[in-house]
């Protein structure tokens, strides 16, 4: 008989694979499908009319495309809170993971520029870079702060916005 994870102490990273939040996996899958559709429609929009809900709204309004990035940010927050139950990683690991996301984002958003550097300029802000920064800020605040500090930060950010 094997012991349950709770009886053996904190979970090691390879032990966590069996404990997944199905709703988070579903949201992740739907968001990736949505991201692929939105990118496909954006690429096809110069060829003719496309389904408008799969394009970002110009300014006023809200479409399916406008929900993709916030879904990823929501998943980052939920993941940080879930991993904190099993022991929050140290600041070094948090910053290394965030740095990898930022570097991957810089690479992916500049592949065409790296191919031909005479065309245009490199693109610094991108989706993965922003997700990496959100992850670093969220994980560090969650690691260092208590519930009151987090509530005050949320209130301050909303008031400033």
UniProtKB/TrEMBL annotation:
It comes from the Bacteria. InterPro entries: HGSNAT_cat. Keywords: Membrane, Transmembrane, Transmembrane helix. Pfam families: HGSNAT_cat. Residues 20-158 form the Heparan-alpha-glucosaminide N-acetyltransferase catalytic domain. The chain crosses the membrane at residues 21-42, 62-82, 94-115, 127-143. This is Heparan-alpha-glucosaminide N-acetyltransferase domain-containing protein. It comes from Sphingomonas oryzagri.
């Amino acid at each position: 008989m094997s012991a349950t994870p709770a009886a053996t102490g904190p979970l090691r990273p390879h032990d966590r694979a069996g404990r997944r939040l199905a709703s988070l996996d579903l949201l992740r899958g739907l968001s990736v499908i949505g991201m692929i559709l939105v990118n496909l429609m954006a690429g096809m929009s110069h060829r003719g009319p496309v389904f408008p809900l799969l394009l970002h709204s110009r300014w006023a309004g809200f479409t399916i495309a406008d929900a993709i990035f916030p879904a990823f940010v929501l998943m980052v927050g939920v993941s940080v809170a879930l991993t904190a139950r099993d022991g929050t990683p140290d600041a070094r690991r948090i910053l290394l993971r965030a740095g990898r996301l930022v570097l991957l984002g810089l690479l992916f958003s500049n592949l065409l520029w790296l191919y031909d550097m005479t065309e245009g300029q490199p693109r610094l802000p991108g989706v993965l870079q922003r997700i990496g920064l959100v992850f670093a800020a969220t994980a560090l605040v969650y690691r260092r702060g208590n519930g009151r500090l987090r509530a005050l930060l949320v209130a301050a950010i909303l008031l400033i916005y």
